[in-house]
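Bug: token stream looks shifted between consecutive jobs. Job 1:
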Amino acid sequence: MLMTFLIFIVLLAFIFLGFPIFMSLLITGIIFLVADGNSLNLTIIKMFGSINSLSLLAIPFFVTAGNIIMHAQITDKLVDFANAAVGFLPGGLGHVNVLTSMIFGGIQGSGCADAAAIGGMLIPAMEKQGYDTDYAVAVTAGSSMLSPIIPPSIAMILYAYYTEVPIGRMFMGGLIPGIVLGILQMGVVYAEYRIRGYDIPRTRFSIGNLFRTAWHSMGALLMPFIILSGICFGFVTPTESGVLAIVYGLFYGFVINRSLKIRDIPDILIESSITTSVVYMTIAGAGVLSNVLVRLHFQTEVQDFAINVLRNPALVVLFLCIVFIILGMFLDPTVIIAMFAASVLAIGNVFGFDPIHFGVLMIIIMQLGAITPPVGTFLFISCGVAHLPMEKVVKPLLPYIATVVFVVAIGFVFPGMVTWLPDFIYG
């Protein structure tokens, strides 16, 4: 355990020195592999082995689809529809932020893209209307959690890759918990609005305006429907659904609203390549470091402690939640999934959990790291948009973190919240 502790100290040192996550993982892994007498060839083998999978092809497809969406101004239509649907509620644009994230999550599956695209639009708008900046950033960071939960989800693609569980079932298993989480977050928006004593003008609700906005936004609203229905009814695989998202995004941008230009394509491809490269390098670095931890039996020790010492399923879930929340404060969710997905599956199988049920709940908890300092990527992006120090958002973000923990607790007590939909669709 001393060596494992030293590994994490070195990793955190590189992170706090400002090294990118993937470089911190890779350098730490190389140091301890070489120190253990291994050749650098092993590093190369583990790096390429970690990303050499057709399943991971879905990631660049959805990343590209997300960039097309932003260039084609689909998010503008989503915000307009959400404003007409829930903008009249106390909390106004806060509710719009959450609902837009729910719909946006059904298109591209990335919390980073959600925080950047929706935060870039709604944080300045909320500030202009009179909302406090920390309130606007907390709503944006909290609601960006919805994108990795509501299908399609890049996090679930990674989990399915490491555990070989059916990705379609994982996608459908995350839909209801994602919707429940969105509703709870809207409850937090309402409560915070009242507690802070806001009296900000809101959109007047009108059935006519709602239908009119829905009609004008139909092209954008059809996108998540096409993707999810294609997966549900077996017309496309989850990987092919990423291609479908790209094709429809291009069709929408060039034909429907005509905001996309040929000259935008190089920028879209460059942005997508950069984002995909960072994700793949993070997976590769995590593969190297994970191999070091495997040699030290770290994952096995966590697994043995859960199975042989705790023994009680509720205590095991609580233990894993605590471990992932603590690790999430320092590691990106991608890294945690790479390191622990197989162990999570093994632990769940021992205690008789449905693999989809247990996997979805653990993915939700693993994503908490993205909205917790100091490495929270969703939080970092949201704070960057608002030019607000991260520490000023921690307190208003706590209720959103609580909603995530609550959804996991409810999902543990009522497994049907996760398993009902995939069982209904796939039998």
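Job 2, same session, no restart:
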Amino acid sequence: MFGRHKEKEKDKKIPFGTMAKLEAMLDDALDGRFHEGDYNESRLSRLEVKWRRFLSSQMSARQKLLEEQGRIKSLISDISHQTKTPLSNIILYSQLLEEKEKDPELISMIQAIREQSEKLDFLIQSLIKTSRLENEVLMLHPVRQPIMPMLLAVVNVMQEEAAKKQIKIILNDTDVQACFDRKWTEEAIGNLLDNAVKYSPSGSEIQISVTEYEMFATVSVTDQGMGIREEEQAKIFQRFYRSKEVAQMKGVGIGLYLAREIAERQSGYLKVKSGCGKGSTFSFYMIKNER
């Protein structure tokens, strides 16, 4: 009781005008329009002066952050631009050499150059996408829309790769709508389907289905692959993590990390259900309505 009484006494000692000015300062800072020169120190109490200095330092830090984000954005753009043409040329020339070369030993070397160049190109593009998301260079803009057109586009891209392994992709029809960014969600679901094709045996099936809940809509990708051990299921969403079982297979270990980032930045999440030798189901959750 005595402590509360003392707090009330302190509150009474702060003039209403001071509280109003402190609140105005805070509002300006939150809106990004705080300027120290707008407040005359000769009219401020010691508390107001300290508050002004604190907000000024915060605005300075905010400005530095914005400048740093600008530099990162410029760097990402430069990396993307400067690496695209050389890598494309290396891949193109290796393909031309592969077609003309007759020596089996040289052909295998050329194929290795092409495969490693494609892997490097994929890695650079994945890192650029991840950096843009993490540094908020690119923002997601979720809008409520049908899920089916996005899934059809994803399946269409992966059909050729699946056909090489005689894998059948079964897409169940749906009229469910959800709130998502079309481009980035297509990227995320594409990564899930790419993994399913990559780690599934020839002649197997992959099911893509949509389930509607009260608040969420879920896209599930189910394969008949090798499955994932329980102790590894939390690790697979880490950047560059690759299980020992798939270390010799194609991949860089960034697809699932990127898919989870995309889900979370749309107020959703990504989960996995799996077991050794029992296949895997990755479920991508999206909110149904804009918030």
